[in-house]
Amino acid sequence: MNDTVAAIATPVGEGGINIIRISGPDATRIASILFQSQGGTQVADLEPQRVTYGNLIDPATGQAVDEVLLIYFRAPHSYTGEDVIEIHGHGGAYVSSKILQLVLDQGARPAEPGEFTRRAFTNGRLDLSQAEAVADVIHAASDKALTSALAQLKGQLSDKLNALYDALLQVLGQLEAAIDFPEEGLEFKQKQQHDKNIQSIHAEIQKLVDSYRQGKIYREGLRVALVGKPNVGKSSLLNALLQEDRAIVTPHPGTTRDTLEERVRINDIHITIVDTAGLRHEAGEIEEHGIERTRHALAQADLALVIFDGSHALDANDALLIREVADKKKLVLLNKSDLPTMIDKNALLKQLGQRTALEISATTGDGMEALKDALYQSALGGRPSGEAVVITRERHRQALAQTQEALTRVSQSLQEDRSEDLIAVDLNSALEHLGGILGKTFVDDLLDQIFNDFCIGK
Ligand SMILES: Nc1nc2c(ncn2[C@@H]2O[C@H](COP(=O)(O)OP(=O)(O)OP(=O)(O)O)[C@@H](O)[C@H]2O)c(=O)[nH]1
Ligand SMILES: [Mg+2]
Predict the structure, then answer these.
(1) pLDDT of 158-212, one tens digit each?
(2) Mean per-residue pLDDT for 256-283?
(3) Any idea where the domains of the chain sit in the sequence?
(4) Residue 456 clears pLDDT 70, i.e. is over it
(5) Which CATH class is domain 5-122?
(6) CB of 366 closer than 6 A to ligand 1?
(7) Does ligand 1 have an atom closer than 6 angstroms to the CB of 339?
(8) Which residues, including other chains, have CB under 8 Å from residue 381's CB and lie 6 or more apart?
């Protein structure tokens, strides 16, 4: 990774400015060939992190290609930790690709996707979870997504994980010392103490695992499936929530055949709403395909909006629906509140095992505010917003679960007073999984820990 890479850092197309970024040991050499500052200062002599005005020159012709601003970030005080040059040119697709080509002609290599951030990780500017957060900041589509990504970028999750990691290392250090110096082997009492520590670490990890549902909703938004038998007003409700005539609505049951997905924002959270084909017995062949997709959408959703037509008594298709959503987190809606009520609300709630139902009208808009509020509350999951650390990625959840499995084995072995070697194997495995989130290598860390904690010369 000792070569120099370059890329256009701004989106392709026309805009106000385009930024060409160069990172690596040759960055200043390349820039000094292509850039003439107005005051005549050489690139290597420029004050770091200051903007300098000048011309970008094609060395083959000596002609200016563009008027640019140049910024020099001297290693290690740059995003990648290497020498970085940023050239801010006019925002044309042609001119920026021309500048990039000149940079490549001087020996830089085109950067791979994410390579600048990858270098930042390799050079220790960011850990792996922070590098992931960079992508999340860029992709954030709501305030909640942005604030949780930014917290992770700033190291909130890393700090938490590092503390747990260090606590585990401490235990491992003592086990390793006992292995190396058998005459100082751990007493059962000490093992019990370690077990207590391990269990409290396990509990801390559990909190993080539990935060995943929430974190995922922050990052990706709440996924909601609109389900009900045909004609209850699912598509009408989608349109009402979007305030747009998106889905086809007709008085004929079985109108929607395919799932249809749209996003709305409620306050600071994104909600993805999936309209589905109505569930019913004895559907035709095409409808059956649609119903398969409905089941899939239901399985994928964080929340089901279970819709009934309040102006009709319940029938066999409603009963089918009630069975389909039995194990799903749900919100019950009685639509068509503008018409006389014919449904037995209490009997319905009893069958669904729910306490409340919202009465709404997709056509008049009645009850929409209450519905949005309920959706928002469900997205927050009853948590006060903007506190404790959350995890937002499946990778992290999986690694934490694997850490826990290993820790459970450690605990067991400690309780059963098994040999230090055996316990160390599982503890190492726990550290590997936990450290994997941060992208750590841990052999060196472990040695440091052992030497720091014990007086080896004794
Ligand atoms: N009066 C009244 N009619 C409604 C309301 N919501 C929907 N409708 C009517 O009910 C009929 C069916 O609406 P859709 O939105 O197509 O129902 P759906 O659940 O999507 O039906 P399928 O796609 O067939 O499963 C249409 O004639 C709508 O105008 C409502 O709140 N009040
Ligand atoms: Mg429909």
Answers:
(1) 999 999 999 999 999 988 888 888 776 778 888 899 999 999 999 999 999 999 9
(2) 92
(3) 5-122, 143-211+391-453, 228-365
(4) no
(5) alpha beta
(6) no
(7) yes
(8) 213, 214, 217
Residue 141: helix, strand or coil by DSSP? coil
Q: ∠311-313-315 over CA atoms, to 5°?
A: 130
Q: Which residues contact 383 (CB under 8 A, 6 or more apart)?
A: 214
Ligand 1 site, residue 363, Cβ cutoff 6 A: yes
Closest by CA to 294, choosing from 281, 319, 308, 275, is 275
Mean pLDDT of 315-332: 95
User: What whole-number distance in Å separates Cα of residue 376 and Cα of residue 453?
Assistant: 49
Position 248 scores a pLDDT of: 94
370 contacts 396 by C-beta, under 8 angstroms: no
Ligand 1 pocket, 231 CB below 6 A? Answer: yes
Name the pTM for this structure: 0.81
**Residue labelled with tokens 């009465």:** 359
Q: Determine the topology of domain 228-365 in CATH.
A: Rossmann fold (3.40.50)
Compute the half-sphere exposure of residue 56: CA atoms within 13 Å on the CB side of its CA. Answer: 26
Q: How confident is the model at residue 1 (pLDDT cuts 50, 70, 90)?
A: low
Buried b (16+ CB within 10 A) or exposed e, 81-118: bbbbbbbbbbbeeebbebbbebbbebebeebeeebbbb
Query: What phi and psi, each to the nearest 5 degrees, are found at residue 56?
Result: -100, 120
Residue 256 in contact with ligand 1 by CB distance below 6 A: yes
Residues forming beta bridges with residue 63, ordered by sequence position: 58
For the chain, what is the largest distance between any 2 Cα atoms, rounded to a whole number of angstroms? 88
- Its CATH class, for the domain covering 143-211+391-453, is mainly alpha
Which atom number of ligand 1 is nearest to the Cα of residue 251? 27
- Ligand number nearest CA of 227 is 1
Could you give phi then psi for residue 344, rounded to 5 degrees? -90, 95
Distance CA 70, CA 50 (A): 8
**Across 49-58, average pLDDT:** 97
SS3 177: helix
For the CA of 307, the nearest atom of ligand 1: 19
